Amino acid sequence: MADHSDAFSVYLLADHPHLVEAVARMRWQEWGDEPGREALSWWVEVTASEAGRHGLPVTCVAVDAVGEAAGAVGLGEFDVAERRDRSPWVLGMIVRAASRGQGVGRQLLSAVERYAARQGYPQAWVATGNPAVGFYRRCGWVETERLPPEWGDQLTIFTRML
To answer: pLDDT tier at 81 (50, 70, 90 boundaries)?
Structure first.
């Protein structure tokens, strides 16, 4: 899998394992204050375990012109324990601060949508906190419900037909 724009290319993280720690570090800096997830080592372990190549979980990484990770997004069987009846789920969407607003998130989201469709999934799901609600709406995802906060933010669940 390779998806290219002028400034960024998207690949499977499994094909670029040297970027696992950089992706984990971005996620840790964004969400490392969540209870039980404060250690960078936890994020490295989870990111490595989600860097599959065939089936789920799988992670896509956006790479800039100098070969650094600009962002990443995963696709897994489930995200919200109470909604295990739905699959697949977009997981851990992150774009480094310096690359935000440049289309990296849209490019990553499109890559996992295409991957899920190729795997035969008719739709995908995502649960997100308030800061990213507008992003998913702008990308054509449809809000289906809101769940009470688990550790701070209210979770909004979106879906998209593939």
So the answer is: low
From the list 8, 3, 31, the residue with the least C-alpha distance to 118 is 3
Indicate whether 143 pLDDT > 80.
yes
Counting the structural domains of the chain, the total is 1
Q: What is the mean pLDDT of residues 45-65?
A: 95
CATH of the domain at 108: 3.40.630.30
Residues 6+ positions from 79 with CB-CB distance below 8 Å: 89, 90, 91, 125, 126, 127
What is the span of the domain harbouring residue 137?
A: 2-161
Q: Which two tokens stand for residue 9?
A: 């290319």
Helix, strand and coil in the chain, % to nearest 5: 35, 30, 35
Taking the C-alpha atoms of residue 154 and residue 129, their distance in angstroms, rounded to an integer, is 6
The pTM is what? 0.90
Any idea what the Cα angle at residue 9 is, between residues 115 and 93, rounded to 5°?
60
Cβ neighbourhood burial of 69 (10 Å; 0-12, 13-18, 19+): buried
**84 or 61: which carries more pLDDT confidence?**
61
